[in-house]
Every structure is written in C-alpha cells, then in structure tokens.
Amino acid sequence: MWHEAIPSALGAAIYPPALLFVAFLLARPQPRKRALVFLSGAMAVTLGVGFVVVVLLRRLVVERSWHRSVSPWIDLGLGVLLILFAVVVALRPPRGPKKPRERRELGLVSLFAIGLVMYSPSPLYLASLHAIAEGHAGAAATALSVVLVAVIYMLMAEIPVIAHALRPEATLRTVSAINDWLSRHGAALLCVAAAVFGTYLVISAVVHLV
Predict the structure, then answer these.
(1) Total-model pTM
(2) Engineered SS bond to 79: which of 122, 123, 196, 201, CB 3.0-4.6 Å?
(3) Rounded Cα gap, residues 8 and 201, in angstroms
C-alpha cells in the first residue's frame, strides 16, 4: 500500500499555485491566521474526499476466500486518467511565475472557500487513495493512512506556514525562490509522476484482465 500511496501523494504535492497563494497571504496583515483559515478549507475538502473515495472503493472490492483487490477496471480507468492528465500537462504552454495582483483583503469565509476549491482532488491524489483502498489494513489504520496522505498532499501549503512562524522574513525569500524554480520545472515533474503511475496502473489492470 505505502509503496504506491506515498510516492503518488508526493507527486500530487507539487502544486505551485498553492505555494504562490500562501506566499501572498503571508505577506499580508494577519498572515498566519489567514493562512490557517485557507489551510482549514484545503484540509476539509482533502480529508472529506479522501474518506469518501476510500469507502466507496472498499465497497467495490471483489471479495474472495483468500484474496481481495479493487476491480482491475478501476485501475484501468484511473491509469488512463493519469496518462491523459500527463499529456495535458505536457502539451500546456509554459507559463512564467505570476505575482498576485493587489486586491482588497479577502474575508475569512472567502479564504476557506478558496482552500476548498484549490485543493479539489487531483488525479495523483486519487491514485494515493486508490492504493489505500487496495490495502488490507483495518479501519483505524486506513483512516490514519488517509490523514497521512492528505498531509503529504498539502505539504506545499503547510511547510511555508510552519516555517513562517519560526523565521518570517527568511521564509518569504525562500518561498519566492522555490516558486520561481517550480514555475520552470514543476510541470515536468508533475507530468513524469502522472505518466509513471498511470502506466503502472494500466499495465497492472491489463495483467489482471487478460
């Protein structure tokens, strides 16, 4: 389970827009309070979708006397989705780093809603949940796995907030440099991760179906 769930969650964590938005919030008044509200919205949708998807996939598990596995058709569908996602990312024209435009301060409800929207599940996050659903762990271990994968998925938003509490100015400089690097290489990393896991799932599904 973990050898599939954690790498795909790390791939899903490559999310430059979240880093850019958190950097914007940390440079505004009440930075940590506002960033934490954004993270709360992101965590709500990430965990909510995580538990729902894992429960639904578990209900689709094929029960046998000595074996249980999610239907290969689910593997195939998710694998094709990941490959298509990789193709879209690869063909999308490169975009340079954007700086947030000056705007009126967003309210706390708006920040929570933005967190919900920005962290709607990505294909790689769904692949992590798929790996958890295929595991043989009990209910407590499965719930802990969903939480851990959600935390990994949100690392790009979580780490700057934690670092800002310790070293505010250094964090803003570092986040800006990382965002510039990701604007050049993030799409390629995301494309490779999606293509690798998508191919793995398609091959695994074909082997079980033939």
Answers:
(1) 0.70
(2) 201
(3) 12
How many other CB atoms are found less than 10 A from the CB of residue 110? 13
d(CA 90, CA 136): 35
User: What pLDDT, in 10s, does the model give residues 80-89?
Assistant: 887 887 788 7
Residue 97 pLDDT? 47
**Pairwise CA distance, residues 117 & 41, whole Å:** 8
Give the span between the Cα atoms of 182 and 145, in whole angstroms.
Answer: 28
pLDDT value at position 86? 78
Q: Report the alpha-carbon distance of residue 47 to residue 151 in Å, rounded.
A: 9
> Average pLDDT, stretch 71-78?
73
Three-state helix/strand/coil letters over the chain: CHHHHHHHHHHHCCCHHHHHHHHHHHCCCCHHHHHHHHHHHHHHHHHHHHHHHHHHHHHCEEECCCCEEECHHHHHHHHHHHHHHHHHHHHCCCCCCCCCCCCCCCCHHHHHHHHHHHCCCCHHHHHHHHHHHHCCCCHHHHHHHHHHHHHHHCHHHHHHHHHHHHCHHHHHHHHHHHHHHHHHHHHHHHHHHHHHHHHHHHHHHHHHHC
Q: How many CB atoms lie within 10 A of CB 57?
A: 20
